[in-house]
Amino acid sequence: MSLQFLDICQLFEQLSSLKSPESRELNLQEWFKQHQSSIQRRGAPALALLSCLFPEKRADRVYALRTKQLEHMVTKAACLGHSRVSELRRLQGRNGIDFASAAQQVLSATDDFSNPPRSLTVEEVDHTLDRLASTCVFPSPKLQGSITIGYIEAFDELLPVSPPPNLERSLKESARAEIEPCFGTMIGLQELGKTRSIQHCCQLASHKEVSVQRKYDGEYCQIHISRTHSQHHITIFSKNGRDSTMDRVGVHNTIK
């Protein structure tokens, strides 16, 4: 059975109502246990779930939509008439609530839910977001290509786990043997902190294992070069993970 997108929405609503980090963590663990049978750990379903849980990690998805554009698309898709559109704008202006909350209020007050439509799956929503991002000029060429030929490429992703402390090191070693860098997939950057002095540096490091980088002037990028591809053998990623190969076409000859 596929995981329903409604389950994700309910999870976020529950987490937003909880105040302490401990209660949120317990709620999250209980949610994963409850939906264990519906969660797939490999392929497109796993990617869809992780994309919904961590949308900010999908730097390849760029929508370039302003609030007014999104409002027009939603009102058209929901077949909202003039009066309901006016009510939608009034709620945003008077109460200062966000567009999503205002749309929910308008639809809840006027639509008939006695015969609710079929619930959408996480994969269906994820595919829709891919198609929406593919219409923009900024997303990853790989994303645009996957939509053009009518399929979503499957990726193996790791879902969050909570192993016992005594197994963490051995599990990390096992994972390293299975996961290898590959051309065209950006290697994630670790979180870096800026220090103001040696004392500040020692305070941040404390007893942790850390790495140190010298900061140079200029813009960070990650360059992938494949010696086996005759075409498109250079891929350049910007710091936020976006495919910027064509944006930096001026340095291609220098790299070659």
From TrEMBL:
GO terms for biological process: DNA recombination; double-strand break repair via nonhomologous end joining; nucleotide-excision repair, DNA gap filling. It comes from the Eukaryota. GO terms for molecular function: ATP binding; DNA binding; DNA ligase (ATP) activity. The keyword Ligase applies. InterPro entries: DNA_ligase_ATP-dep_N, DNA_ligase_N_sf, LIG4. Keywords: Ligase. PANTHER family: DNA LIGASE 4 (PTHR45997). This is DNA ligase ATP-dependent N-terminal domain-containing protein. The lineage of its organism: Eukaryota, Fungi, Dikarya, Ascomycota, Pezizomycotina.
